[in-house]
Amino acid sequence: MPVTSSSTRPAESTTSPAPSLRSGSLGTADIAFFVVSAAAPLTVMAGVAPLAILLGGIGAPVGYLLAGITLAVFAVGFTTMSRHVRGGGAFYAYITRGLGRGAGVGAALLALIGYNGMEIGVYGLLGTATQDTVHALSGTGVPWLPVSLAGLLLIGYGGYRSIDFGAKILGVLLAAETGILVLLAAGVLIEGGAHGLSLASFTPGNVLVPGTAAVLAFAFAAFTGFESTAIYRREARDPSRTVPRATYLAVGFLGLFYAFIVWTAIQAFGDAEVVEAAGSDPAGLFFSAITTYVGAWAADAMHVLIVTSVLASLLAFHNAINRYGLALAEEGILPKVLARIHPRHGSPYVVGIAQTVLGAVVVLAFAAAGADPYGQLLLWVNTPGMLGLMALQLLAALAVPLHFRRVSHREGVLRTVVAPVAAAMLLTTAIVLVVTHLDLFTGASATVNTVLAGIVPAVFLAGLALARWLRRSRPDTYARFAAEPPAEADAAEAP
After folding, report:
1. Is 26 helix (H, G, I), strand (E, B) or coil?
2. Mind telling me which residue stretches traverse the membrane in this protein (predicted)?
3. Which of 126, 333, 414, 416 makes the best surface tag, with the fewest CB within 10 Å?
4. What is d(CA 316, CA 119) in angstroms, rounded to the nearest whole number?
5. What is the pLDDT of residues 389-427, one digit of tens each?
6. What distances in angstroms separate CA 234 from CA 163, 307, 493, one per listed residue?
């Protein structure tokens, strides 16, 4: 047998595959955990639903149902696009297909502002929620800033680890926060409410009232982040099925769960008394109800679980931001260094570190200015984020029929035209409702509200300008923007 010397032996490749996201890591339930956790159901119910009841009366549960129906209609076209666009850019990739690269770049910047706004502002809520919990349980006070900074580090670590690690954490936290609300509902149903159970909340006379417009504004805000299912396409098992299923599951669960829990809270006090109770102590409405129907220990548990609910929302948004940042770094819109993926955890860890640093800068800036962590850090930063994501939903709905007019496909007209056009009309109404009731979200002056609302069109216009610059100065980058990845990039779709 001939011997081959080391000098003549063919060179063996020592190059290892480049690190990549963990394809096939997430199933339907995992992705649904991410998007439902981002909505923070317990925080929305205990913190915002009393205001919806105060403004809209006992018809408030229907507002959440109507918002859920609207977003389910939007999901029809959105999930249809998800089967035809394989890239990781979700919103901006869909919008590029239908409205062109200029609008796509504008949408990419809106996504960065929207998701960062929704996350960074919530660090103010983390600080105040922890303050309230510590005071309720021990009677002592804690400063909000160290809590918020500790939260930044904790969430940064969660994003640094693998995506399935985050899914397991969110699964536990989501089960806990929804569990305490189910416990409240069970107590109310078993006891029969304050005066017996009533379906008056669903009658036209209680729904068609002036305050319903404000309820709808709160309700649409309560679903923010549900569309991030498509961001996890590259890590999903069989994404052409998993992403649509997770989207419908998230929308359906949130719409029905919100409406049911708000209705049970109304029953806890009675149709005639609940509005007065919400007006006298909105922050304590749910705690009072669970103390009465379950026990003081459950109210203590609810205080703790609100903090974990906020943490779950932060981790979900952090992971979404990381994947948008990764996609844009791979596109060449953001610095290439942000496209690095951890060789062990398969996470976009560099963009995660950058996002954590950005969050720390914003939080410290608000603290240095003496701003209120809830009334200013949370509300002023969250508001343009929420409006940005709603604007992205509208642009995506408009993009669907325009895209399918240009390509050959086998999708039905209901999915590619009727549902997206209906969703665009409904989302336009929702945006108008939110903008015209912005003072309910911010508690700020008309000048501040104008600035906050104006950030969204300003960012989109900046994106259009950036697209024009890219087309002139970096034509290769512009031409590759939101292009379809190679077919093998969807290898995870195999069952």
Report:
1. strand
2. 31-55, 61-79, 91-115, 135-157, 169-190, 202-226, 246-266, 286-317, 349-371, 377-400, 412-438, 450-470
3. 414
4. 9
5. 999 999 999 999 999 998 888 889 999 999 999 999 999
6. 11, 30, 9
